[in-house]
Amino acid sequence: MASIPTQASVVVVGAGIVGNSLVHHLAELGWRDIVQVDKGPLPNPGGSTGHASNFIFPVDHSREITDLTLDSVRQYKELGVFTQSGGFEVARTQERMQELRRRMASAKAWGIESHLVTPEEVVEKVPFLDPSVIVGAFWTPTVGVVDSVGAGTMMRESAQNKGALTVSPNTEVTGIDVENGAIARVHTTKGPIETEKILIACGVWSPRIAAMAGAAIPLTPAVHQMISVGPVPQLAEQTGEISFPIVRDMDTFCYERQHGSDMEIGSYAHRAILHEPDEIPSIEAAKLSPTEMPFTDDDFDPQLEQALELMPDVLSNPDVEIRYAINGLLSLTPDGAPILGESPEVKGLWSAAAVWVKEGPGVGRAVAEWMTNGCPEVDVQGADIARFHPHQRTREHVRARTSEAFIKTYGIVHPGEQWNSDRNVRLSPMHEREKELGAVFFEVAGWERPQWYASNAPLLEEFGERVMDRTAEWDSRWWSPIINAEHLALRERAGLVDLSSFVIFDVFGPAALDAVQSIVLAQMDVGIGRVVYTPVLDETGGFRSDLTIMRLAHDRFRVVTGAAHGMVDVKWFADRLPGTGAQITDLTSSWTTIGLWGPRARDILSQVTNADVSHERFKFGTARTIEVGSLQVLASRISYVGDLGWELYIPMETGLRLWDVLTEAGTEHGLVPVGLGVYGTTGRIEKGYRAFGAELDSDRSVIEVGMARPKVKSQGFVGRDAHLRHREEDPKAILCSLTVDDHTSASGEKRYMLGGEPIRSQDGQPLIDGHGHHAFVTSAGSAPSLGKHVLMAFLPPAEAVLGNQLTVVYMEEAYPVTVASIDATPLFDPSNENIRR
Amino acid sequence: MDILVCIKRIPDIAGQITLDGSGTDIDDAGLGHTTSAHEECAVELAIQTAAATGGKVTVLTLGPAEAVEQLRAAVGVGANDGILIEAEDSGAFGTEDIAQVIGDVIRDRTEGGQNFDLVLLGNDAADTGDFQVPIRLAYDLGYPVLTSISTFSPAGGPVIEARGIGPSGTEIFSLELPAVVAVQEGGVDPRYPSITGRMKAKKARIAEYVAPEPGAGNPRIGLELPPDTANEVTILGEGPDAAGALVDVLEEIGVIRS
Q1: The predicted structure's pLDDT at residue A1
Q2: Residue A316 is nearest to which of B29, B32, B196, comparing CB atoms?
Q3: How many CB atoms lie within 10 A of CB A412?
Q4: What does the pLDDT look like over A60-118, one tens digit per residue?
């Protein structure tokens, strides 16, 4: 039996495309003493890479995934294993054609060449396709196929040639020792390895390995059915692996891909077929490979018929036989994103799982950079393993969401689309009241959050035309004009917002000030009772987060951040506490938050408290505890909707009482409950407030988003050097707010952009910033106070000029827009008088 | 020539075998299901013969409801229709019971006007390896029987010429119909289904019978796995130097002929 090193700088588990890319990039970045194990043989150890269909369509609606894919394609090309074939996504329905027009927006926004084409143009390149079945197609010439096993072998060997890597195939991980919360050693069938880091890159088996250390990698093995038919005479006449473009039959959730003289047909149309990581057969017991499960004909039969419709000449030939048919296993996650980074549960346990062949090398590079210097060049924050809230790590949640998501693989997914499964997990204390008010709930991080309230429908009449109703079905899906009515009611009177989903944690202890000071950009050595909104940067000066910190005591700071990204923030802070002088405690489930804003907010609050809440005695940017009846309320005078008011923090169990007290007091002032549609979009967008994940990400500097302060504090903080450098440089892009000047489409219907659309010059030319990014809409929404639809976008500095006339392309039609703000100056109430009244 | 082919749903095993909790059956959780290679060849021979004589092929199985998958698979490659004799616990049936049940169905069909000229089976089932049912069925029907037959062809009138190809030579028989033939693999290459075949299979008519309680029962009390034989890996060499040794191995296992 071959021996295995007894020590390693990192043990990489898995020799599929991800593990192989990782060892390559780690070696490139200077890592040595890497040990890579796989329980299977080489070069194909039997995981999902071995049966992947290996084609790459670069356009995805997610920019993060597109960035990873483009980097992967570049790497595959460097390795000489990429063959460009071109690819069609064909539409059988008009609804799909609209989706393809939307796909064009993503292609243009990410700068990828694509075209909408007619059925006849498809047939020119794919002569065996029946054009009468389709109404059009989306053509991407840079689609191609790769040899992922070959690429992996080359990358593994490059690390071996550097003397950086020992590869041990046929070696199974049998246990992981965790000591003091950190990885200490990995046990294998060939002996133990002392190591502080394990990198789990073994796809469908990843949860099983993570569980050995008491950590979760919340993914599930799921079936993707694939058959291969041949020999096809039309294909056999051509030389090489692929000479015809790949066809994705979007409406039947299938693809047809030439492989030599065979045609592979893959399906995402069948029922979700989930497996358990522990029940995947062993290599010894598997007929083909462990991830090539027995084919279930019944599930695939409907797809055969549809494939036959599309390519009758090829597939009705009785000599074309089904020679290979598998239920191939791949990894699905509850939110569809990969699972990357260091586990928040065990120090030194890294994950690079739920990654497709098209993203493999890009993920390998990003995670290797992350492990080396903390900052991947490509922003992968949406894939951070730390993002999961506890309930999202459960088997039940993973199975529910992946079952629901499977059919969306080729589906038409609206950007506002909500999940149906595993709802009502986290309910605020006001939930029952909200239901009585006809709240329409949207879910984030398990929290049911009112997006708008049916009880506010009468406001539509009050505000009439000002609610900017939308007639196009797509634009108004997952939306209601009530949102805009609630917005106007808040601006004119007052609104009450349930903000229970905030992630709240305290940093406390004698070194608490040093801790927060070293983590965030803003000066934290402030008086007790001050509230500070601040960016959190990484070492490159890009955004890790933006959040609010209240100084509650000399040695206690309360951090308030969003639900979607909050768990990542908790880990970011916890990882950076200096020694023993500061601790962190998550109070999310202890505190609920109610927002009270609008010109009447002070009237309402002063009616229920004896505390002096006047402007002079309760200044903006301060927080203190006030009494509301018998309740103690931590009131914080800040606003993400840009109006007078407070965030009111109160123990969870007393939240309902406070809500009722405020509602009652507010009646005579015209107070209405207001949903997150206002808080998350309309309120912020007319105030130019940036949102993490939309405008703020690790690619963008504080300067580019217009959030630089006059001075930089003298104390050190993460990203300070980079930030100082950015201040000296000319920005490569500038975040602007734009207003849409005319919404009228060719059909005469008014259309409203939802985000993600390309911004172009008046004559339709792309606008490319100093990063090489094409300009696109990062956020879009109604600004009811202005009577405008507002877009935010990073523009090349030369275009970031007030009054500059540009266009936005929506569903393949251009609409005129005007640059209305080139810094953080709000379009509504530019001098912020409303907040400070 | 109207031909009946009897097939059996078995776990699709290629690697290590494990037994279920009872110790009397193979654990088929996680395994696909198929029919034995002998039976695939029997189906192929039947299809070729029916095509050559203008006859038809019926496939029959005794097994659980899911065994309809194996019937449809046979229709997918060219059989005309199927008969499912449903028995939830088909493992309780001994070879004598199975022969009896199949014989009863054949007699029922005969009464209904459908006469099978030839009844084909696999030499033995890949999971249990009994070598019993063909002979017992022939006895039950009062038909002549041949076993270990690789190929056959019509020989004029109600007669076929059957060949049993072995390592040391070929036996040739002339067999008068109706008869039972047990086929062994190797004489023909079974075809894969085409897409149109598979679609036809989906719509194929499957007649259903319910099996009576087994009479004689299954005398088998258990299965035992052979001891683990460690996999031995022989490295033939590296690079071009290994070519000669590789050719030898490919010849030995019959992939190529010298």
Answers
A1: 47
A2: B196
A3: 17
A4: 989 999 999 999 999 999 999 999 999 999 999 999 999 999 999 999 999 999 999 99
Q: Is B65 on the interface with A (CB under 8 A)?
A: no
Domains and CATH numbers, chain A: 10-46+151-220+335-400 (3.50.50.60), 48-131+138-145+222-330 (3.30.9.10), 591-671 (3.30.1360.120), 689-821 (2.40.30.110)
Average pLDDT, chain A: 96
| Distance in angstroms (rounded) separating the CA atoms of residues A248 and A265 | 10
Q: What is the mean pLDDT of residues A467-484?
A: 97
For residue B94, give both structure tokens.
């001994």
- Rounded to whole angstroms, the Cα distance separating A698 from A337 reads 17
Mutate which: A262, A289, A304, A329, vs B, most B CBs within 10 A: A304
Contact B32 A287 (CB under 8 A): yes
User: Long-range CB contacts (< 8 A, 24+ apart) of A767-772?
Assistant: A767/A795, A767/A796, A767/A799, A767/A806, A768/A111, A768/A796, A769/A732, A769/A733, A769/A794, A769/A795, A769/A796, A769/A797, A770/A730, A770/A731, A770/A732, A770/A733, A770/A796, A770/A797, A771/A699, A771/A732, A771/A733, A772/A111
Q: Is B192 on the interface with A (CB under 8 A)?
A: yes
A278 in B contact zone (CB under 8 Å): no
Instruction: Write out chain B residues lying below 8 Å of A295, CB-based.
Output: 32
Element (H, E) at B49: helix B37-53
- For residue B28, give the chain A residue with the closest CA: A285
Across A768-804, the runs of DSSP E, i.e. the strands, are 777-783, 788-795
Interface of B with A in 222-251 (CB under 8 A): none
Candidates 3.40.190.10, 3.40.1050.10, 2.60.120.10, 3.40.50.620; CATH matching B3-229:
3.40.50.620
pLDDT at residue B162, rounded to an integer: 96
Name the 3-class secondary structure at A678: helix
Query: How many angstroms away from the CA of A563 is the closest CA of chain B?
Result: 40
Instruction: Tell me if B15 and A297 make a contact (CB, 8 A cut-off).
Output: no
Strand stretches in A201-320, DSSP E: 220-230, 246-249, 254-259, 262-267, 292-293
Are residues A281 and B191, on separate chains, in Cβ contact within 8 Å? Answer: no
Tell which residue, B58, B189, B12, B46, has the closest CA to residue A325.
B12
- In the structure encoding, which two tokens stand for residue A698, read together? 């690790």
Tens-place pLDDT, residues B121-159: 999 988 888 899 999 999 999 999 999 999 999 998 899
| Residues whose CB is less than 8 angstroms from the CB of residue B238 and which lie 6 or more positions away in sequence, other chains included | none
Contact A61, A144 (CB under 8 A): no
ipTM value for the complex: 0.86
Residues of A annotated as part of the active site = 224, 255, 546
Q: Which of A280, A288, A318 lies nearest to residue B197, judging by beta carbons?
A: A318
Instruction: Give the per-residue SS3 of A630-667.
Output: CEEEEEECCCCCCCCEEEEEEEHHHHHHHHHHHHHHHH
Residue ranges per domain, chain B? 3-229
Query: Distance from CA of residue A713 to its chain's centroid?
Result: 32
Burial of A297 (0-12, 13-18, 19+ CB in 10 A): buried
* Per-residue model confidence as pLDDT tens digits over A238-260: 888 899 999 999 999 999 999 99
pLDDT digits (tens, 9 = 90+) for B176-221: 999 999 999 999 999 999 999 999 999 999 999 999 999 888 878 8
The reply to whether residue B15 touches residue A284, judged by beta carbons under 8 angstroms, is yes
Paired tokens of A188: 């294998």
User: Is residue A352 within 8 Å of residue A68, measured between CB atoms?
Assistant: no
| Helix or strand run (H / E) with residue A141 | none
Query: Which residue in B195, B225, B231, B235 has the most chain A C-beta atoms within 10 A of its own C-beta, making it the best mutation to test that interface?
Result: B195
Chain A CB within 8 Å of residue B21 CB = no
